[in-house]
Amino acid sequence: GDCMRTEYRIDRKRIRLWLTEHDMDQSGLAERVGCAPNTISHALLYGYNCRMDLVLNISDVTGLPVREIVEERPVPGRAR
To answer: How far is the C-alpha of 75 from the C-alpha of 48, rounded, in Å?
Structure first.
């Protein structure tokens, strides 16, 4: 079968803008989202792949649509 899978990477600029607008820091967001602060900071700093449940929680907390806060990146399973 096809080995393509999708990674969901947080749109760092969008989230940072939201945090600024709401006078909140990453640990405040993490607390509301229900994850460890370093989960959020790693997602923002390094663009780590985010689990979909985390993406949905961030969407709920911020009120931002999922498609606004993530960049979908198709990831090939192997070199072609």
So the answer is: 13
Structural element, H or E, at residue 60? helix 52-62
> What are the φ/ψ torsions at residue 10 (nearest 5 degrees)?
-65, 135
d(CA 36, CA 31): 7
pLDDT string in tens for the chain (80-residue length): 556 677 778 888 999 999 999 999 999 999 999 999 988 888 887 776 778 888 899 999 999 999 899 887 777 766 55
pTM of the predicted model as reported, rounded to 2 decimal places = 0.76
Q: Which two tokens stand for residue 25?
A: 């820091």
How far, in Å, are 7, 76, 80 from residue 17 at the CA level? 22, 31, 37
Phi, psi of 22 (to 5 degrees): -105, 15
> Are 74 and 4 a contacting pair, CB within 8 Å?
yes
